[in-house]
């Protein structure tokens, strides 16, 4: 094949879901050896377009051309047989199985008719090492590991599938900066060996670094395809939003004064020497009314597990959690009743995808809203108000969460807790998967809550997120608090250094 003709083309592709026009008149192509990025706001149509390419959505209008020939994909298996693999935004791993099995799901190496475990383990180890992830034991169940490893398993699965076109739908949303770096470099290496990659991300710095070309979608339409070298973040955001945008991310790059105006405020949540083996040890801090405290750490540093413990999802083996001076009894129900709200880092674990938005929002509040008899109109009314506040699109309480775009699902997970403002709001990765505008909306909501006196614990592995909102920042590494930044200028680099420097020393 001549290298200038595309590996894959979409011609005049359109897709409707019920009344929603998800894609209109899309022309798109991927060249051999190219990294082609796809950007756009939440709900712009990126995942829909990729699901068409990967055979997940077989019904659509228009034509798909693979190596010069029109094809009609019947299912993902068909796509894989042709040479198209996809890493899904919503992970499709099986946590009970070993890491190696997840990587080789459905195509385990065989020997004399049975699974060749030794070879599977060896090959799984090799591919993870290539991703810079050699501390994972591929013989252990995947569920023993944090979300970043789940994401890496899915990436490794696509990489070992032998596909010529690999679609990555937000592959780095649960990865640490180091892992992200590895993946970006690996993506360039893939391209250098002639493979093609479609790369979807809301992190525009990644996009301009890794891509050859960038296509911008807005409201289901293709707005432009640009040479990555000739564009920048500013232009991409303008094309994505259709207007000049305030730059939420600019503020942190130059460093930011972090003050502690809450030192004298009323303590709401106090952790005393909290310990849970393999997760965190000897963690103590106090969170005050009206404060936004950032808790930053690399994936695996124990910060997410700490959030779970505060919400009562599991019991620490030592130490105490005090809410307004009183110990919190174990269990999320009791935590909620005492005024603790929690957003988990993975939206899948907190949402019932097949249920309508309103049931997801009112779940913690059924006793207050409905009493013993369900009162759907009231639930819908309550939901309508809070999903409009966070800008869920479409703002339809009856819509099943499954049908929302990834970023909009995350907004539902936050909206739930606006029904009755909590005393303590523990949010893990609140802006994961969100576009620039939606991130800003969420930060605004956290600020409004803190101004109303809510104590916010913002847990994240994205330096941008903690820097954008926090007034004080604690850094965790290997289960311990290793640094506190108060009343000084903090940069992304300093955070990374604090979080990873300690790691290096501990080894
Ligand atoms: N199975 C479905 N049924 C109904 N509507 C859907 C379905 N899948 C997607 N949509 C709608 O199509 C539109 C495009 O969604 P899509 O998931 O492609 O967005 P996206 O660009 O990937 O967004 P995000 O950045 O949030 O992941 C949205 O309005 C979404 O609600
Ligand atoms: Mg998507």
Automatic annotation (TrEMBL):
Domain ABC transporter intervals: 8-244, 265-503
UniProt xrefs under Gene3D superfamilies: P-loop containing nucleotide triphosphate hydrolases (3.40.50.300)
Entry's localization field: Cell membrane
Pfam families the record matches: ABC_tran
Keywords, comma-separated and alphabetical: ATP-binding, Cell membrane, Membrane, Nucleotide-binding, Repeat, Sugar transport, Translocase, Transport
Principal location class: membrane
Bilayer disposition of the protein: Peripheral membrane protein
SMART domains assigned to the protein according to its UniProt record, in alphabetical order: AAA
GO MF annotation list: ATP binding; ATP hydrolysis activity
Cellular component aspect of the GO annotation: plasma membrane
Name this protein carries in UniProt: Sugar ABC transporter ATP-binding protein
Taxonomic path: Bacteria, Thermotogati, Deinococcota, Deinococci, Thermales
């Amino acid at each position: 094949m001549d290298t200038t003709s595309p590996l894959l083309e979409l011609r005049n592709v359109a897709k409707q879901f019920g009344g929603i026009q998800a894609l209109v008149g899309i022309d798109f192509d991927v060249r051999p050896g190219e990294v082609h990025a796809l950007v756009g706001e939440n709900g712009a149509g990126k995942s829909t377009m990729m699901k068409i390419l990967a055979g997940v959505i077989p019904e659509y209008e228009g034509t798909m051309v693979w190596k010069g020939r029109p094809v009609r994909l019947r299912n993902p298996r068909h796509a894989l047989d042709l040479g198209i693999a996809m890493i899904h935004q919503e992970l499709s791993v099986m946590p009970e199985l070993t890491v190696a099995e997840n990587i080789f799901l459905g195509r385990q190496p065989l020997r004399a008719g049975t699974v060749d475990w030794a070879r599977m383990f060896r090959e799984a180890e090799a591919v993870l090492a290539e991703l810079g992830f050699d501390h994972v034991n591929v013989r252990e169940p995947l569920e023993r590991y944090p979300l970043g490893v789940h994401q890496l398993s899915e990436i490794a699965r696509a990489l070992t599938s032998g596909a010529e076109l690999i679609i990555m739908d937000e592959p780095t949303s649960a990865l640490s900066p180091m892992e992200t770096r590895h993946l970006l470099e690996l993506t360039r290496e893939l391209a250098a060996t002639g493979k093609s990659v479609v790369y979807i991300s809301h992190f525009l710095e990644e996009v301009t670094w890794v891509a050859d070309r960038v296509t911008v979608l807005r409201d289901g339409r293709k707005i432009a395809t640009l040479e990555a070298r000739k564009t920048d973040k500013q232009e991409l955001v303008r094309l994505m939003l259709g207007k000049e945008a305030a730059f939420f991310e600019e503020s942190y790059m130059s460093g930011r004064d972090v003050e502690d105006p809450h030192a004298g405020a009323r303590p709401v949540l106090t952790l005393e020497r909290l310990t849970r083996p393999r997760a965190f040890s000897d963690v103590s801090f106090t969170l005050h009314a009206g404060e936004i405290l950032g808790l930053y750490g690399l994936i695996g540093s124990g910060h997410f597990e700490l959030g779970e413990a505060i919400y009562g999802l599991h019991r620490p083996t030592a130490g105490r959690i005090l809410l307004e001076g009183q110990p919190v009894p174990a269990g999320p129900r009791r935590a909620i009743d005492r005024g603790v709200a929690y957003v988990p880092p993975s939206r899948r674990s907190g949402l019932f995808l097949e249920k309508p938005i309103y049931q997801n929002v009112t779940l913690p509040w059924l006793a207050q809203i409905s009493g013993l008899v369900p009162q759907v109109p009231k639930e819908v009314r309550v939901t309508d108000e809070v999903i409009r506040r966070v800008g869920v699109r479409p703002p339809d309480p009856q819509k099943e969460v499954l049908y929302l775009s990834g970023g909009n699902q995350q907004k539902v997970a936050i909206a739930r807790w606006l029904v009755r403002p909590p005393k303590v709001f523990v949010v893990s990765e609140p802006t994961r998967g969100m576009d620039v505008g939606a991130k800003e909306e969420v930060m605004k909501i956290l600020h409004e809550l803190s101004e109303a006196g809510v104590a916010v614990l913002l847990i994240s592995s994205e330096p941008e997120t903690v820097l954008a909102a926090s007034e004080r920042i604690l850094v965790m590494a290997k289960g311990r608090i290793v640094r506190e930044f108060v009343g000084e200028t903090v940069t992304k680099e300093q955070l990374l250094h604090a979080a990873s420097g300690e790691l290096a020393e501990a080894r």
